[in-house]
Amino acid sequence: MRKWKSMACFFSLVQQYELNINFMGDQLASNAKVVAGNIRKIREFRNYTQDYLAAKLGISQNAYSKIELGYSKITVDRLFQISNILEIETTQLMSLDHAEFIQIIAQNGSSRS
């Protein structure tokens, strides 16, 4: 009987671990989508086309579109390149708070004039 209790405990821990892993994966995917959306919002705010950013990055427009849609994972180097082209701090692109991000856009817009 003791062996069964320890096995049940083991399987319970495994299930909790799997749930945590799935949650973390979902959270990371969600955060990546937010960053991709922030990139798109800033690009549109700057009135840049996808073709323009793609050319600056040395990739096709289709490849760039996948970045904005969150279909492609981007490296830190690529994120730095994008933030440089968009004239925004890399950390600001990673803002997960919508209201804060709108404020960042407004501040950067007024400082560019």
Short description:
The chain has 113 residues and is mainly α. It is built from six helices and no strands.
Detailed description of the structure:
This protein is an all-alpha fold and 113 residues long. The chain has one domain (32-112): 434 Repressor (Amino-terminal Domain) (Orthogonal Bundle). It is 81% helix and 0% strand. The protein contains six helices and no strands. The chain is globular, with a radius of gyration of 20 Å. It starts with a helix and ends with a helix. It holds the Pfam family HTH_3.
Structural class of the helix and strand makeup? mainly alpha
Oligomer: single chain
Figure out the total of helices: 6
**What are the secondary-structure elements, in order, as H or E?**
HHHHHH
CATH class: Mainly Alpha
SSE map:
Blueprint: H1 2-45, H2 50-57, H3 61-69, H4 76-86, H5 90-93, H6 98-112
Helix pairs in contact: 2-3
Short descriptors:
113 residues; mainly alpha; 434 Repressor (Amino-terminal Domain); 6 helices; DNA-binding; Helix-turn-helix protein; DNA binding; Lambda_DNA-bd_dom_sf; Cro/C1-type_HTH
